[in-house]
Amino acid sequence: MSESVYRSRLAQPIDKLAIALIALLALAIGLLIWGGTGCKDDCLFHAGARVNSFSWDNKTIGGQDRAFILTFNRPMDRDSVEENLTIAPPLPGKISWSGLRLAYTLDNPAPYGESYNVALARAKDRFPNQKQAGSQIKPFNAEFRTRDRAIAYVGREGEVMGRLVLA
User: Fold this and answer.
1) In this structure, are strands 152-154 and 140-146 parallel, antiparallel, or unpaired?
2) How far is CA 36 from the centre of its chain?
């Protein structure tokens, strides 16, 4: 290809726009790689460790619900997560892991009529090729509750006689 044909192709406005956009994006990527994002909290490019989902978040659970799942956005240092996971009031149970998911299985059904708070702070992330724990997780707080206590009985007196009464 001759030089004049090559120059005429690059003289097209769409080519100039594409080259400028490629250069701008390459510069932005280079700056992010070289200097990081500079974000300390929640910002667009910050990819710190956090809890992606909690299966009982703001839900009302019953006797059939025996386990909740916390899903993380990256591999976690399992020991630091297990040490720093708190449930108030306490619910005895066992922790098991599957990849990025932590499952907490209750030893007994949760008592009815209670509100619970699940918190995780100061846990650290971990990547498979690292031997030591990394940065701390974004603090996590969530709540769930159990159904209200209720009793059903068959009325024996007055207007409720012979009827099922829910108290």
Assistant:
1) unpaired
2) 23
Query: CA 141, 145, 150: angle at the middle one, nearest 5?
Result: 170
How high is the mean pLDDT in each 10-residue block of the chain (167 residues)? 60 85 92 65 62 95 94 92 96 95 96 95 78 77 91 83 78
Q: What are the residues whose beta carbons fall under 8 Å from the beta carbon of 51, sequence distance 6 or more?
A: 70, 71, 72, 73, 120, 137, 138, 140
**CA angle, corner 38, sides to 17 and 22, nearest 5?**
15
Q: Which residue has the tokens 């998911």?
A: 101
Nearest Cα neighbor of 72 from 108, 45, 47, 93 is 47
| Alpha carbon 21 to chain centroid, angstroms | 35
Query: How many Cβ atoms are within 10 Å of 151's Cβ, its own excluded?
Result: 7
